[in-house]
Amino acid sequence: MTSSRRTAMPPAVLAVATLLLSACAGAPDAEKKSAAASADYPVKAVSCGFTSTVESKPRRAVTMNQGATEVALALGVQDQLAGTAYLDDAVPEKWRKAYDSVDVLSKEYPDHETLLAAKPDFVYGSYASAFDKDAAGPQSELAELGIGSMTSLFGCGENKPSQDVSFESVWDEIAMVGDVFGVPDRAEKIEADQEATLKTLKTLKADGAGAGVDVFWFDSGDKTAFAGAGEGGPQLILDAVGATNVFADLKGGWADVSWEKVVKAEPDVIVVADAGWSTADDKIAFLKKDPVLSTLDAVEQDRFVVIPFSESTPGVRLVDGAQHVAEQLTSLDLG
């Protein structure tokens, strides 16, 4: 469970907490609660070989990339954000009001000066590229300015997971971010809710939602196909619904494959990621127009499953992606 993965409170901090609570024995309840809350810090955010020590609850955090932004929104800490940047697709309706309450610093990455103008006390990015010199700047330099930071556990290397990708490791990240923002209980609830959804999917799997179905996960590309491989979000989703990834033998979360291999795989269904930079409609039109790819049975029979790109990457919406894939597989005529 999440509680076992939360950042342990250092002994020194526990001692401080005890002293504070003792000193406040005769103080008003509000003061006691304030002392107890302050004892949860410092918190260490450890990812991608960098450790950031967060001394107090962030009040002006900035999220870079949709995945990081949506973790913050799912945790309900929008009032602790000074800004966001870089969406891949639409923020879901359930978080739209919260998202609209936060300033958008840039359509893509803000530069270092724009970021500093927001006076951030913490920066959370989905990918290492968020901390390039042309974006937020190196994490070490932000630390020198007193700004904490964190990269997603899955964003350290290009197109490769930084650790084994699993629903549990996704919850690890959410728990860490929950600790940083001072809302560990909300992180625990997200995990419990998502575990319940996955249990429901296991029932669907037993009923045949994805059983016996060979799937090609088409992310983007035209000269070659950028496909969901065997070690990332697409594989987790297909495993959850009981379907078979035709490129499960490839390393990493994503891989370039030739169209000849796609044709040879003869997938029953094609999952198409819908992103602002590569829409599902564009990809489906490409498949239908190509003289060879258009002859695939999945293309001829319109056996497409479409989900937002943000539901295909390791993050707070990955379980939503699994649920939506299962629902669409169930509705397809696979006879």
UniProtKB/TrEMBL annotation:
PROSITE patterns named in the record: FE_B12_PBP (PS50983), PROKAR_LIPOPROTEIN (PS51257), TAT (PS51318)
Residues annotated as domain Fe/B12 periplasmic-binding: 60-335
Pfam families listed in its UniProt record: Peripla_BP_2
InterPro entries from the UniProt entry: ABC_Transporter_SBP, ABC_transptr_periplasmic_BD, TAT_signal
UniProtKB keywords: Signal
Cleavable signal peptide: 1-25
Family, similarity comment: Belongs to the bacterial solute-binding protein 8 family.
Name by which UniProt lists this protein: Iron ABC transporter substrate-binding protein
